[in-house]
Amino acid sequence: MKTTLISTSILLVVLISCTNPKIQNKSQAIKLNRLRHIIHETKFIALPYVFDATRNHIKGYHLDASTPDSLVFSSSCFTIINCFPDTTNYFAFLFGESGDMLYPGIITFDKSGKLISKEIISTCNCLTNPRVDTESCFDSVIIGKDLSILSYSKLKATIQPFDTSNVTFDASSEEKLTGRINSNGLVEIEKGEKK
């Protein structure tokens, strides 16, 4: 009974603290300062910008979960490559997330440090598939001066079925997607055509 009362009291204090405007304002101030720090540590992106998603290594600001970065970003598994030139309504960053290939994305925050949008902006057509024998793959993203997004990839490959036959099939493809960052900082992606 005493343990339940203590647990309930602690929970009540935590809940009241979370709704306290002073604490919320302090938290937002920390986030905003962290965003400004990252802007200072990275370069502004020159538009138009071409991003080769098949590169193995990128330079930039590597997020660190042991710093206030964790207050702003839910994951430390990506690198902030560049920040976009200042806009009126939001901050925008180009990031790279590591995986089978480099996944380029855009993350945006409002001017108080609140997350608006986070989107991968690549077709990701060059992903590794153990059944596909890839001869060549090209995957790039172009971000225009008007904050338009065009991702294009071309894969030349063959695939062999799981059966024991020596038959292979053409697995080559081209893929395109388009999008943009709207005036409110929302990253809008439209899946394109696949040939």
| Tally of structural domains | 1
Rg is 22 Å
Q: Could you report the average pLDDT, rounded to the nearest whole number?
A: 78
What level of helicity do the residues show?
10-25%
- Distance linking N and C termini: 66 Å
What percent strand? 35-45%
Low-confidence stretches: 5-21
Sheet bearing the most strands, described?
Answer: 6 strands, mixed
Q: What string, H for helix and E for strand, traces the elements in order?
A: HHEEEHEEEEEEEEE
- Give the overall shape, derived from the CA principal axes: elongated
Strand segment count: 12
Number of H/I helices: 3
Structural classification: alpha+beta
Keywords:
12 strands; alpha+beta; single chain; 195 residues
Explain what this protein looks like in three dimensions.
The structure is a single chain. The protein has 195 residues and is α+β, with helices and mostly antiparallel strands. It has one domain (2-194). The protein is built from three helices and twelve strands. The strands form two sheets. Strands 1, 3, 4, 5, 6 and 7 form a six-stranded mixed beta sheet that branches. Strands 2, 8, 9, 10, 11 and 12 form a six-stranded antiparallel beta sheet that branches. Strand 6 and strand 7 form a beta hairpin. The longest helix is centred in the N-terminal third of the chain and has 21 residues, at 21-41. 23% of the residues are buried.
List the helices and strands and how they pair.
Layout: H1 2-19, H2 21-41, E1 43-44, E2 49-52, E3 61-62, H3 69-72, E4 78-83, E5 90-98, E6 102-110, E7 115-120, E8 132-143, E9 148-159, E10 169-170, E11 173-181, E12 187-194
